[in-house]
Amino acid sequence: MDKKKKPSHSALDNSLWSAKMLMKYSPAAFFIIVLLIPVEIGMQYLGIYLPSLVVSEVAEGQTLEHALMTVGLVMAAMFAGGILQKALNYIQSAKLEFYKNRLTDRITRKKLSMFYQDYEKKEVRDLASRAERATQMWNHKLPVSDIVTNEFGMVKNILGYFLFGTVISFASPWLVPLLTIAPAVNLVAVRAFNKWEYQHRPERADLGRRLGLVEELPDDFASAKDIRIYGMSQWIEERYRELSAENLIWKKKESIRRAGSRAADLAVILVRDGGAYALLISMILKNEISISQFVLYFSAISSFAAWVGGIIDCWNKVHSNSLLVCDYRDYVDYPDQDGSGSAEAEEHLSRLPEIVFDHVSYRYEGAGEDTIHNLSFTIRRGEKLALIGVNGAGKTTVVKLLCGLYRPTAGEIRINGIPVSDFRREDYYLLLSPVFQDIRTSFLSLAETVSGTYTEKTDLDRAERCIRLAGLGEKLDTLPQGINTKLDKRVNKDGTELSGGEAQKLMLARALYKDAPVLVLDEPTAALDPIAESNIYRAYNQMCVNKTSLFISHRLASTSFCDRILLLEKGHIREEGTHEELMQRGGRYKEMFEIQSCWYQDQNQDGGEKGGDEK
């Protein structure tokens, strides 16, 4: 990513957008922020007026009753204003938390719905990480809400500037320009820091992502076994220290630059306030102002400086938060790739589909050549097609293209003669029941995992039938809560943990429950033992009734029941035919089959010999 790339939105645009979002999701917070402006200005003015009032009452020789009454009214007003201010701040905090949650929901929805091909890209994942930072608390700052509070903070500080500027101008007209111009140095310094921070945000996000992944490893059950058996703990610790050291270097750079901007601010304060206070002292020594006026002006100067600093501080914070809001908006507004919507999935749910790959090519971003190139084949209506090949042949890429997770670089995929690109993605997904290689269960129940919805909306009888058909019946019978047993012991006290094979069967049950016309099985038995695998194959014909199915496997013995087999090699179809035809042809398929068969036979013979010795 280009470090010199300008922000996608201006600070003004982001401020208006943020105010609009706040009005949409939490209008109460918006109106409280507005209401706090006169309350806080009033409290600040009463704060500088009270000391002057006390001195004036004493200096003018007012009676005790008059002084108590006058000062008491001001103090009562301050007390009431303080209570109101605290109450509004408390309510505002709760409402802004709700606002933050709503904006966080938008990121989550984007992650769940984004086109998979885009979601896989590293730059998109990095952008997502930066977008999340805009909705997270960092050093007591929450960018998505702070940009709104700071833009109204600027309004408050500008009003305070004019009010308090009017007060101190009575002492000397030179005080207002002196206290106004000096902070320009601070503005330049802070803007330079914000620019540096924005330019280096991609490296920081990438480092944070890598550090986070290493930090998560000790809590990952799947990794815990490898870490212990292979003695990886020391390597992980060293990697963590390396990344932490790299992160520390960035933090030092950031601290040095931030300290530089603060040093400029302190220098400005010394010159600005020192000169103003020297002028007031000179005036009182010359009897140009009274003691009560001195107290009023002295307090007003301190507050005026705060208003000027507040304007600059809010301005800088608006620009700083704006950069993070840019990342947020860039992610949630990331262009979505969807079909034209001219085709309706409903028309294809009740009939056996025909699937055509017409001269399809696909190249991964940054790759030097196509993973699959000019690939053409047809899966006939109701056909069980097997796709085989060595690792890297392009099988999983074909599956992702068929499932609409990728779009072809060239060529076209059609279902019942309709281009896949004519379907809306969510509509097209209704036609497919896939089981992928990568399996991850969640903390939901077995029933909810199979149905993909709440228990109340799940057909429990149907879910159980699918679970048993997928070969998970014996496991189901051992669970005290049956189909309602929750998964993941880390989240659920009475949960259960499934083995890799059991999880694979559960995913197969999920595909059966969906009952879509296209069944896609990508290595569905990779984690199963031979007996369970054999049982799945026997049930496969029943699963494929009234469906068009694509079956991928490395184990060639498992493809013999398919109607047709395609041998994929380097993105091309090298051989095609039934199991018997390919064996008679004596080509690459037969060679691979005999190698695997020989290995299985050796394994069986070894097992038999061991069994005899044990007897």
Keywords:
six-stranded mixed sheet; 62% helix; 615 residues; alpha/beta; single chain; disordered C terminus; four-stranded antiparallel sheet
Walk me through the structure.
This protein is of the alpha/beta class and 615 residues long. It contains 21 helices and 10 strands. It has helices at 11-25, 27-59, 64-113, 116-119, 122-133, 143-169, 175-181, 184-199, 201-216, 221-229, 233-285, 291-332, 395-402, 425-429, 446-451, 460-469, 473-478, 500-514, 530-543, 579-585, 588-614; strands at residues 355-362, 372-379, 384-388, 410-415, 418-419, 432-435, 518-522, 548-552, 564-569, 572-577. The protein has a 6-stranded mixed β-sheet with strand order 6-7-8-3-9-10, sandwiched between helices. A hairpin with a 2-residue loop joins strand 9 (564-569) and strand 10 (572-577). Helix 1 crosses helix 12 (291-332), helix 2 packs antiparallel against helix 12 (291-332) and helix 16 (460-469) packs across helix 18. The radius of gyration is 35 Å and the shape is elongated. The two termini are 67 Å apart. The relative contact order is 0.08.
